Each structure stands twice: as structure tokens, then as C-alpha cells.
Amino acid sequence: MESTFHISSYCHIxxxxxxxxxxxxxxxxxxxxxAFIKSAVRHVKTNYPKFYKMDHLSKLAFLAADxxxxxxxxxxxxxxxxAIILSNRASSLDTDRTYQASIAEPEIFFPxxxxxxxxxxxxxxxxxxxxxxxxxxxxxxxxxxxxxxxLWINTQSLLKQKKAEKVLCGWVDFDDxxxxxxxxxxxxxxxxxxxxxxxxRLYKT
Length: 205
Description:
Order of helices and strands: EEEHHEHHHEHEEEH
Shape: globular
Number of strands: 8
Strand content: 25-35%
CATH architecture: 3-Layer(aba) Sandwich
Number of domains: 1
Helix content: 25-40%
Number of helices: 7
CATH superfamily: Thiolase/Chalcone synthase
Protein name: 3-oxoacyl-ACP synthase
CATH topology: Peroxisomal Thiolase, Chain A, domain 1
Radius of gyration: 17 Å
């Protein structure tokens, strides 16, 4: 009998709010992103000193992943066969602008390695993997808009081929002051069917 897969949990971060499975977990209106994400990470008790050194995109992805993986009660001391498939529209453009500004003027040319390291969007997956000891496949796609069908196809393939026990999927985009994260965890157990239509429904929730 062919295995069927389900979405066990999902998380949104947008409009200065963090939602878990559609329910508000934290909200702090009228804050810039930097202040909001710092207060949110303290509220959900994400204990990871390196968080404050990350770029905006990595902070966004890291917090959404941490909310989901803590709910799943995975031990940070044990390796987990969890793949990551993420996507966005702006790639690492926000950090690219910061880095470009640091090298634009010859008189004050000062490229920063701590900024340069985040000029690839997939670095956020590395931060998640280090914190939660995830050892499996990962990939980051760039689309014009949220593409549930593509995420579904790749996730189904990984799970059916048993290249991962679970897959952390979704959309995490940061561009200037605009940001949005929608991450969900796919596995055999769960109550929400893992289908493109259900993924689209949850994304729009």
C-alpha cells in the first residue's frame, strides 16, 4: 500500500504576527521588522545566541522553523532525517543591497564577511539545520510567487523515495520592509492532507 503524507503543523509570520496552525502565538503591531523579530523570538523562547547575527531572511526562516520544530518536540541533541525545501521571490536581495552599499564607494570600501556570508538565500537553511541537527536533503527555489505545486512535487518525491522522514517546506521572503514566512511540516502523521490545494488554502489562511 502506497504511503500517504500529511501536513502536521504550519506557521505564518507576517504583519508583525506569528501564527501557529492558524492560531495567534505572538503579535506586536507598529514595530519595524528588527524590533518585532527580536521581541517575537524572546516571546517564543528561542534560545540561540547566533540568531542576533543573522540577516533578516535567516531570522524570518529560523523563527518559523523553530516554532514548528519545537511543537514537534524534536531533541536538539539528536540528528534528524528532516529535509528542507524553501522558496521565495526576492532571493537574498535585501542582504545584497547591504553588501553592495559596503563596497560601492572606493573611499570607504569595506566588504564585510559577516554580511557577505548571507548573500545566498539558502544560508537560512544552514542556520536551521545547525540549530535542530537536521541531516538530509535541502533546496531553495526562486519563484515569482508562492508555488504550492512545485513544493508538493519535490516533497512527495523525497518522502516516497525515503530520502527523508519528514520535510520542512514553504515560503520565506524578505525585501526591504516587506516580509512573509509560511512554513509547514510534512510527514506520515497528521490531520491535513498533503495536497497542492490544501497547501494553497493554508497559505491564504
